Amino acid sequence: MAQILINSRMCAEGHRxxxxxxxxxxxxxxxxxxxxFDSNESLDGLINEGVRRAYNLPDNVLRASV
Length: 66
Prior knowledge:
Family: Belongs to the class-I fumarase family.
Protein name: Fe-S hydro-lyase tartrate dehydratase alpha-type catalytic domain-containing protein
InterPro entries: Fe-S_hydro-lyase_TtdA-typ_cat
Number of helices: 2
GO molecular function: 4 iron, 4 sulfur cluster binding; lyase activity; metal ion binding
Keywords: 4Fe-4S, Iron, Iron-sulfur, Lyase, Metal-binding
Distance between the termini: 25 Å
Shape: elongated
Structural class: mainly alpha
């Protein structure tokens, strides 16, 4: 019960969601026909790196996705 109250307080203060499971990231991407990426990384790799960086931003309020 104490943990639920702590989680509730953290949520109210804007630190983290009360729910422990924030879901799975779904990326919707539109790429033009003549777009070229200046990278040797795959498109999946580039997307994963972008999501990783977004979750590590100091003002991100979500827990890391599964």
